[in-house]
Design goal:
mainly beta; about 10% helix; disordered N terminus
């Protein structure tokens, strides 16, 4: 989905601290560095790479959106933000490290991040796996808006043949900064910031076929978001 730097421009007649904070929390949910898979520790030969996307429902008529995103923008499609990206994961026995990256076409905007999974309770034939995931992401390429996210989540998963359902609960931290420019004979600027903490509740399922792996998950945080991934690996 194309995204241009001019698609985010804070309107000084509409923006305030409350709607800036809501905007930052929703964008933070869109760029959150989920590798779209159950958290687990894989062996040294474990590797997985694929393409994923997170889709977040937004209200284009709400004050938080009108204050930050001009009309006729290319930021959304049919009332959704979509962030497609590349995802790769590597096992190290003691845990799994994942990285995500996206460069939005026709712009200089990038989002990248990573996650680290470490087991709390090793799974087995009859036991589920309990694991901790720590994550980080950042959004760059927009002059007037900068944002980072941090996450800590506990995942519970259990495989049943090729199907692995999983669920997670955790917290995400938003660290955002936006510049509001007032035009005039001598332009002035104020900076709004937001540092919010939100609960995250996630449920998903992975289907491991002969070659591809298919994963879908849904998350409830500030709003509801959906993510999917197609990957190959072992």
């Amino acid at each position: 989905m194309p995204l241009a730097a001019q698609d985010i421009k804070f309107d000084p007649t509409l923006v305030n601290q409350a709607n800036f904070s809501q905007f930052a929390r929703i964008v933070g949910q869109a760029i959150f560095a989920t590798p779209v898979q159950p958290a687990r520790a894989s062996g040294f030969l474990g590797f997985d790479a694929g393409v994923a996307a997170t889709v977040v429902k937004i209200d284009e008529g709400a004050a938080y959106w009108r204050a930050a995103v001009p009309q006729n923008n290319t930021f959304t499609s049919h009332g959704y933000i979509g962030v497609p990206r590349l995802v790769a994961s590597k096992g190290f026995g003691f845990g799994t490290i994942s990285g995500t990256y996206a460069k939005i076409s026709n712009s200089g905007i990038k989002t990248w991040g990573g996650a680290f999974d470490t087991p709390l309770l090793r799974g087995g034939l009859l036991k589920p796996e309990l694991a901790l995931r720590l994550s980080y992401s950042t959004l760059t390429g927009i002059d007037v808006f900068h944002e980072k996210t941090y996450g800590a989540e506990v995942f519970l998963s259990k495989g049943f043949g090729p199907i692995t359902p999983y669920a997670a609960v955790g917290r995400m931290r938003i660290d955002a900064r936006g510049d509001v420019v007032f035009s005039g004979h001598t332009p002035t600027k104020i900076t709004l910031t937001d540092k919010s903490s939100l609960n995250r509740y996630t449920a998903g399922v992975r289907l491991s076929l002969l070659v591809p792996k298919l994963v879908v998950e849904v998350t409830q945080a500030e709003v509801r978001s959906y993510a999917a991934k197609v990957s190959i690996g072992f």
